[in-house]
Amino acid sequence: MAFRQAEVLNELQLSRATFCNWRRAIHAFAGRTGAGAIYSSGDVLALKAIKFLVANREMRISKVGAQCGPLIDLCRYENWGKLRNAGVVYDQRTGAVEAVSEEAQRKVRGSYTEVTIPVGELLSELEANMNRDLHDRVCS
């Protein structure tokens, strides 16, 4: 499913100004400008994960944006069935990511440099919103 900028803003609940700042900071999205820019569902999942890091872990978008390429790639290309029951361990120092099981997530919780992103929960939210939006489009 393709998302326009307004739909991304709605999904992430971000202001246009904040999103423009993020887009400049995140190299993978820097070239996408204007309301006509298109984002894939994987892009939106990655942006939800980035929002989790910024909002819940108080990380700066400039730091996350500079090293989030592996996170974006994982959200774009990993089998979502695998992500549904997993979390993603994000290394704050290097930006390295790895999808891990719930058991492995519990071991990470004590680590200072590693953060577990609840990608399964974020994916469920995104899918529910996509299904609702698709239903609304078909029925209207």
What do these coordinates show?
This protein has 140 residues and is an alpha+beta fold. 59% of the residues lie in helices and 14% in strands. It has helices at residues 5-12, 16-25, 41-56, 61-67, 69-77, 80-84, 102-108, 119-139, and strands at 2-4, 38-40, 87-91, 97-100, 114-117. The strands form 2 sheets. The chain has a 3-stranded antiparallel beta sheet. A hairpin with a 5-residue loop joins strand 3 and strand 4. The relative contact order is 0.14.
Fold blueprint:
Elements: E1 2-4, H1 5-12, H2 16-25, E2 38-40, H3 41-56, H4 61-67, H5 69-77, H6 80-84, E3 87-91, E4 97-100, H7 102-108, E5 114-117, H8 119-139
Antiparallel strand pairs: 1-2, 3-4, 3-5
Helix pairs in contact: 3-5, 3-8
